[in-house]
């Protein structure tokens, strides 16, 4: 993580409690997009006394402050990631639920071109592509 949890709390005016520090550290160390139940499982592996309610409250507070982004990825579960410094898109494996972050200048260029062609300027967007692993020996067509 580029910025320490302590610095981030100071920047956003958050009081840094023991449980909050652990929850935030687990979130910032996550390379995936955990839901609250998975986040709670990881947090209690470090500190068993942290309740699920504390994790929910902390996640909601961090969302309100703009520290976290919420995604559903079509499975109905609210999943979280730290607010990215750079824009990226997501590939979501429909069989496993795993999420791959990627960046593509070509996709960004095409989106801008399409918006402009229709008389618009993009204000914000997110791209979620739902994928399934290719079976060996089968063509895409």
TrEMBL record:
CDD domains reported for this sequence: Fur_like
Tell me, what's a Pfam family for it? Answer: FUR
Cellular compartments annotated: Cytoplasm
What InterPro entries does this protein map onto?
FUR (IPR002481), Fur_C (IPR043135), WH-like_DNA-bd_sf (IPR036388), WH_DNA-bd_sf (IPR036390)
- Keyword flag Transcription regulation: yes
From what superkingdom does this record's organism come? Bacteria
Query: What UniProt keywords apply to this chain's record, in alphabetical order?
Result: Cytoplasm, DNA-binding, Iron, Metal-binding, Repressor, Transcription, Transcription regulation, Zinc
**Assembly behavior:** Homodimer.
Family, according to the entry, reads as follows:
Belongs to the Fur family.
**Official protein name in the record:** Ferric uptake regulation protein
What is the taxonomic lineage of the source species? Bacteria, Pseudomonadati, Pseudomonadota, Alphaproteobacteria, Hyphomicrobiales
């Amino acid at each position: 993580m580029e910025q320490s949890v302590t610095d981030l709390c100071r920047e956003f005016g958050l009081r840094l409690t023991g449980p909050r520090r652990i929850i935030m550290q687990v979130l910032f160390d996550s390379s995936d997009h955990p839901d609250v139940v998975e986040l709670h499982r990881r947090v209690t592996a470090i500190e068993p006394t942290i309740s699920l309610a504390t994790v929910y409250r902390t996640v909601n507070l961090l969302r309100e402050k703009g520290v976290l982004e919420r995604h559903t990825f079509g499975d109905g579960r609210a999943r979280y990631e730290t607010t990215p410094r750079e824009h990226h898109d997501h590939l979501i494996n429909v069989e496993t639920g795993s999420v791959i972050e990627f960046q593509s200048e070509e996709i960004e260029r095409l989106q801008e071109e399409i918006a402009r062609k229709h008389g618009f300027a993009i204000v914000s967007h997110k791209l979620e592509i739902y994928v399934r692993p290719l079976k060996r020996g089968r063509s895409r067509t």
